[in-house]
Design goal:
alpha/beta; Rossmann fold; 9-stranded mixed sheet; globular
């Protein structure tokens, strides 16, 4: 298959971000852009996107707030190559590291992600339960979507290790796994803020977005949920602005003031 047939060039953030990605296999979509819109950053922050794929979430954050020191971490070398291409094509400075987030800590340290060195981590870990979801025959897609009992703990441990005290982790996960997320974040994180994401108004949440602070002590907050598909004739202005890259979600309300939630 030639390159033109193997990849598509897709527009995100209302066309301000263009990404090359595989036509088949793992593709960036709503989850990545929602994660980006929920991630509060400040200029000069050191920001790491774990499991970056083709770079959608991390590059969307950097397209919104300039001056970041951005690192994209991806286990698959082909996706990492696409992330490197996408960063250059969008004129967004970014380091791209090929590394297993759940592997040995020394690998991340050796790649420049030393302990207590990062201001913000965002991540979209594999979260489908193999006991309830059929594994994709595409190995890249399966790697990106399927988790096991250790996946979440390993990714959160990696984030906790590299974050500075007071640094922020933002992640997206399936809504029925909220208990797993809260348990994993109970070790070393606090000041949790949880935002349920519903597909349709009146139906159970399908995703949760979570913001946690390393060493934070504030009590858990659960925000009013948002719906991707609002009632007919009633567009969700918050979602529309987030998907267009013109606004953030309620997890990042103080970004313009340069505040770090604690």
């Amino acid at each position: 298959m030639n390159e033109a047939a193997a990849f598509s060039e897709d527009a995100f953030l209302g066309g301000r971000l263009r990404l090359r990605q595989p036509i088949s296999g793992h593709r960036a979509g709503h989850d990545a852009i929602l994660l980006a819109a929920a991630t509060a950053v400040r200029p000069d922050d050191r920001v790491v996107d774990l499991g970056a794929g083709v770079g959608a979430a991390g590059l969307a954050v950097a397209a919104r707030v300039g001056g970041l020191a951005l690192t994209l971490v991806e286990i698959d070398p082909d996706l990492a190559a696409l992330a490197r291409h996408n960063a250059a094509a969008n004129a967004i400075p970014a380091d791209v590291i090929v590394c297993d987030v759940s592997g040995e800590a020394s690998a991340l340290t050796g790649a420049g992600l030393a302990p207590d060195s990062v201001d913000v981590v965002l991540m979209n870990p594999p979260f489908n339960d193999p006991a309830r979801h059929r594994r994709s025959p595409d190995s890249t897609r399966a790697m990106a979507h399927m988790s096991d009992s250790t996946t979440l703990d390993a990714w959160i441990h990696a984030a906790r290790r590299m974050l500075k005290s007071g640094g922020a982790l933002t992640l997206i996960w399936r809504a029925d796994g909220a208990g797993e997320v809260l348990a994993a974040l109970s070790r070393g994180f606090g000041s949790l803020v949880l935002l349920p994401v519903h597909g349709d108004v009146g139906k159970p949440a399908i995703r949760i977005l979570v913001r946690a602070i390393k060493g934070g002590r504030a009590p858990l907050q659960i925000l009013a949920g948002i719906a991707l598909n609002p009632s007919p004739g009633q567009p969700n202005a918050v979602i529309e602005a987030a998907m267009a890259g013109q606004g953030t979600l309620p997890l990042a309300p103080n970004e313009s003031q340069g505040e770090r939630l604690r």
